[in-house]
Design a protein that fits this description.
It is built from 12 helices and 8 strands. The longest helix has 21 residues.
């Protein structure tokens, strides 16, 4: 039943008609738990509140299904405005983005141009770090290729490696000598068995493998997980190998396990919260519902209370 629900919500996440309708609905039906607001000012205020609790942040202006050049350029402009707002407000925050927002499905050159615009603005506004989120497998290799090209000119950019893909350990090894700041995740898309581990236990084992691999390679690791077993694994690993706490961080999603986030920060670990915002929230919201049945229960409870 849990897997069926996951597949159902992942299917819904790709529905363009529902995505368009959701923009008109606004943040309703529990989405405000996982999305920090629709405007930059609302998002910056949430980041400020999280900073006051000792939490670092990364902002993500949500956007999917971009197939027109004007939309891609507008998304890039919005990323630049976000960087300027981060700098002006002096909050402790990075930027996360998706290449499909910036026109990857339209033109690789358009996407690369927009990424350079954003990274130049990030440099100008205090060398803010920019994370390229990894999307589905169809975009995996081209994302790594674009990252490789950008690393020739920028040192404030990194990406995400997904543990459920068979190729992830090889990808980390290829990036080893480029000293890339990587976010390590289990993976949230539905992929075929030809490219991804179908069993959760195998994903978990591979996750531990790539965490160990990347950290012991001497490169900065952002371990994005809500799994206590993985958190304890990382704590033991860094203690065993005397890894300084400024060489890694934990990351969690906005609205999920908020007390655990604060506790990790109080323990002296770098704890960063992934804070999404914007009116194009539908696909992101559906994937959060797909991840855990408890998320669905929360939303249903919110709908009844309304």
């Amino acid at each position: 039943m849990e897997q069926a629900m996951r597949n159902f919500f992942l299917f819904l996440s790709k529905n363009k008609s529902l995505n368009a309708a959701a923009k008109k609905w606004g943040l309703r039906f529990g989405a405000t738990r996982f999305v920090a607001g629709e405007t930059i000012s609302e998002a910056i205020q949430k980041v400020r509140e999280l900073n006051e609790k000792g939490l670092l942040c990364t902002l993500d202006h949500l956007g999917e299904f971009v197939f027109r050049e004007e939309e891609a350029n507008e998304s890039a402009d919005y990323c630049i405005m976000t960087l300027e707002a981060i700098s002006a407000s002096a909050v402790n925050c990075n930027l996360s983005l998706k290449l499909t927002q910036l026109g990857l499905d339209i033109s690789r050159d358009l996407c690369l141009h927009n990424m350079r615009r954003i990274l130049d603005a990030a440099k100008k506004n205090g060398n803010i770090f920019v994370r390229i989120d990894m999307e589905d497998y169809a975009h995996n290799e081209v994302t790594l290729q674009i990252l490789d090209e950008l690393l020739q000119d920028y040192d404030n950019v990194g990406t995400v490696i997904q543990a459920y893909l068979y190729k992830s350990a090889d990808d980390i090894e290829k990036l080893k000598d480029k000293h890339v700041n990587l976010r390590l995740v289990k993976g949230a898309y539905k992929e075929p068995e030809e490219v991804a581990y179908p069993e959760k236990a195998d994903v978990d084992e591979n996750y531990k493998k790539i965490i160990r691999q990347h950290i012991l390679n001497g490169n900065y690791a952002a371990v994005a997980t809500h799994d206590d077993q993985i958190i304890h694994f990382v704590k033991r690993l860094v203690e065993e190998h005397n890894i300084p706490r400024d060489r890694f961080e934990f990351q969690m999603l906005y609205g999920i396990r908020t007390q655990s986030q604060v506790e990790l920060a109080r323990e002296g670990y770098r704890m960063r919260v992934y804070v999404p915002y914007g009116n194009d929230w539908y696909g992101y919201f559906m994937r959060r519902l797909a991840e855990r049945p408890a998320n669905v229960a929360f939303v249903l409870k919110g709908m009844v209370s309304k």
